Amino acid sequence: MDQYVIKGGSPLVGEVAIGGAKNAALAILAAAVMTDETVTIDNLPNVRDINVMLQAIENIGATVERVDIHTVKINGSTIHDTSVDNEYIRKIRASYYLLGALLGKYKDAEVALPGGCDIGSRPIDLHLKGFRAMGAEVDIRRGLVAAKAEHLCGTHIYMDKVSVGATINIMMAAAMAEGKTTIENAAKEPHVVDVANFLNAMGANIKGAGTDVIRIKGVSRLHGTTYSIIPDQIEAGTFMFAAAATKGDITVRDVIPKHLESLSAKLLEIGCQVIEGDDSVRVIGSKELKSTNVKTLPYPGFPTDMQPQMAVVLALAHGTSMVTESIFENRFKYVDELNRMGCHIKVEGNTAYIEGVDKITGAQMSAPDLRAGAALVIAALSADGISEIEDIEYIQRGYEDFEGKLRGLGAMIERVDSEREALKARLKIG
Hints:
Blueprint: E1 3-7, E2 13-17, H1 22-31, E3 38-42, H2 48-59, E4 63-68, E5 71-75, E6 83-84, H3 97-106, E7 108-112, H4 125-133, E8 137-141, E9 144-148, E10 156-158, H5 164-175, E11 180-184, H6 190-201, E12 205-207, E13 213-217, E14 226-228, H7 233-245, E15 249-253, H8 261-269, E16 273-276, E17 280-284, E18 293-295, H9 307-315, E19 320-324, H10 335-340, E20 344-348, E21 351-355, E22 364-366, H11 370-382, E23 386-390, H12 393-396, H13 402-407, E24 412-416, H14 419-429
Parallel strand pairs: 2-15, 3-14, 6-7, 10-11, 18-19, 22-23
Antiparallel strand pairs: 1-23, 1-24, 3-5, 4-5, 7-9, 8-9, 11-13, 12-13, 15-17, 16-17, 19-21, 20-21
């Protein structure tokens, strides 16, 4: 079982390059099968979820050629099956994007119900409501979602609540439906815009992505293209908050600063310096962090995927802070782990009350999910002494070479896969 051994207490200093956005890439890979021509996608993050998605696409017959670890060529003309089910695809949330893609292209799709991190209920009823509105028959059987349509017809769809996944899925299906589709109360996240831009690069007609009304005029076919994925705002944010927590000085490179505005605003609020460049953001941690309140909201609000990392920073700030989670109900499972390090965090309902402490100490911990796992790593790097973090496969789902990038900033972190190696690592960094 892989784990991290980390010695904390030193500020992280230096530059780090940010990879492509995992959440955009997963949807774009699914959309790539909607044409019979070759699509080249670069700036792909080399993480577990991406590799699972590529495997799923290959399993249904598409041609997948890895040009290098960050570039892939996909050709969907060889697809022989519209049923996607294997043990791996069930483990990733984004498997549902293949529903919209295959339904749009073939008017027929069957995809295993998705898994991913256990951070709360993430029903796909909005996705299915959208498909049904366009004329598809949708059925759930044997753990599979099946959608079929004689004709997919454009329609007016109002989203009962803002959902990134449903917005993207409906947008993909609508791109090849007959007539016009309007999605109201659409998600505005950067990766929604990225998927729309990708589909438009293949010949789709989508307008309004990034606003709450998206208008789509269906086309009969899509063509090949070459496309580069946007940078990952959550990876960037994780390193920005690592600078704050360790009182370091980190420049995140290859980013779009506008996508990071809600994070930069909170860092300024708690006393850090934030210096924006054209494609970089530098964060200089403060010796005296101040408390604040945070509520997670859909973009452009504070992202739910940065909530655990924020909690770690506030646990080291002076005063009492409040973190309110309004997106997922199960997102505070990391709190017990932080309290074992000496943090003072109490959870009531969907709010964490955080009493800042001067210092925390290393502990043995377990990552409960992807973003909480990254937050525990930040906590370990801020703590006195040595920490060990288990279940790091969650972290590997969404961060490429996390420990390598951290070491480049001066972190003492080793990845080990046995107790013997853990002992060696403790001696090495101790």
